[in-house]
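Appendix C: a fully annotated inverse folding record. The material below is reproduced so that readers can follow the format used throughout the book. The structure is listed first as tokens, followed by the designed sequence.
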């Protein structure tokens, strides 16, 4: 893939991770065909910065702890359109010539996933750094720390895991005597396990569950996993139950999708 521009930096993508670079500790693995993985990622809008031809803005970063100061090319992909616009405004103030030559472009997370896969087979490898909402990362941190501490208690002979959450957080809830995942019913009648990009949307679901099942209210536990880890487990192993997972966009993303549909319907009616 041709990159638009490069500028030097040390690896300091705060709040970001490289797509596919993490695996999750508390989800069993699920092997899905590639088309099924992209199907799950397709409804999630993300935002990147490109030129008019669609070439991404690339940052050359130095990988830490490498003897020769190895560098990689990284394109930022924002989960929030607002964050992408803020990044572009900052770029315009620091480098007006470059900033005024690029724009924020919405794409599907599935498209980024495909581009990242294809990039591995090219001479100029390009990584995509997913930039989550920092508010959601902050909400994820205490949940992740508690999960890792519980894992260590259950596995005292295993190496310790990092208690610092890294990646794009996804929130899900378990409840009941068997600690099963809470589910929702899809339009086709099938039961699905929702993983939310926004914790407050999950909390609304949990609150409804507690009202409907008051005897189970105290059993509800909210967990967090990194999106990157979920993608990796989807690629690698087999667990039919996790085939039910559905990714639930944030409020901001839902509003963006509504606006797209509204604009599309307006254009068709003219």
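Designed amino acids, in order:
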């Amino acid at each position: 893939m041709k990159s638009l521009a490069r500028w030097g930096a040390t690896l300091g993508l705060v709040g970001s991770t490289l797509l596919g670079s993490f695996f999750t500790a508390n989800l069993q693995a699920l092997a899905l065909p590639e088309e099924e993985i992209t199907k799950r990622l397709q409804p999630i809008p993300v935002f990147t910065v490109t030129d008019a031809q669609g070439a991404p803005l690339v940052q050359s970063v130095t990988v830490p702890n490498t003897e020769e100061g190895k560098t990689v090319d990284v394109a930022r992909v924002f989960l929030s359109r607002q964050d992408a616009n803020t990044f572009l405004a900052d770029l315009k103030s620091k480098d007006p010539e470059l900033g005024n030559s690029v724009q924020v472009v919405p794409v599907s997370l599935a498209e980024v996933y495909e581009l990242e896969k294809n990039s591995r087979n090219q001479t100029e490898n390009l990584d995509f750094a997913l930039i989550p909402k920092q508010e959601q990362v902050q909400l994820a941190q205490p949940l992740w720390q508690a999960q890792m501490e519980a894992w260590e208690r259950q596995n005292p002979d295993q190496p310790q895991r990092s208690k610092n959450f890294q990646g794009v957080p996804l929130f899900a809830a378990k409840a009941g005597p068997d600690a099963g995942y809470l589910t929702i019913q899809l339009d086709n009648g099938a039961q699905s396990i929702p993983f939310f990009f926004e914790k407050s949307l999950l909390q609304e679901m949990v609150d409804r569950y507690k009202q409907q099942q008051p005897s189970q209210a105290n059993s509800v536990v909210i967990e967090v996993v990194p999106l990157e880890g979920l993608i990796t487990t989807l690629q690698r192993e087999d667990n039919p139950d996790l085939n039910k997972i559905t990714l639930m966009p944030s409020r901001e993303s839902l509003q963006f999708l509504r606006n797209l549909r509204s604009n599309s319907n307006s254009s068709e009616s003219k």
